[in-house]
Amino acid sequence: MSKKIKTRINVWAAIGAAILIVLLLIWLMFAFLTGDTDVAAFIPPML
Fold first, then answer.
1. CA distances in angstroms from 38 to 7, 12, 23, 29, 42, listed in the order given
2. What span, in angstroms and rounded, lies between the C-alpha atoms of 23 and 26?
3. How many CB atoms lie within 10 A of CB 24?
4. CB half-sphere exposure, 26, CA atoms < 13 A
């Protein structure tokens, strides 16, 4: 691959990682504010 294509892939990988980190922080902040820090408690029970 050329250097330009590798750079473009690296940029998209960095953007994707940043988005995942932001979503994780939002999820953790929501859990902290609601007092629900148990990850399994968010999954609704099967009826």
1. 39, 32, 17, 13, 7
2. 5
3. 10
4. 6
Measured in whole angstroms, how far is the alpha carbon of residue 18 from the centre of its chain?
8
Residue found by looking up tokens 């892939």 in the block: 9
pTM of the predicted model as reported, rounded to 2 decimal places: 0.61
Q: Which tens digit of pLDDT belongs to each residue from 8-41?
A: 888 899 999 999 999 999 988 888 888 776 666 6
State the pLDDT at residue 20: 96
Q: Who contacts 37 (Cβ-Cβ below 8 Å, separation ≥6)?
A: 31
DSSP 9: H
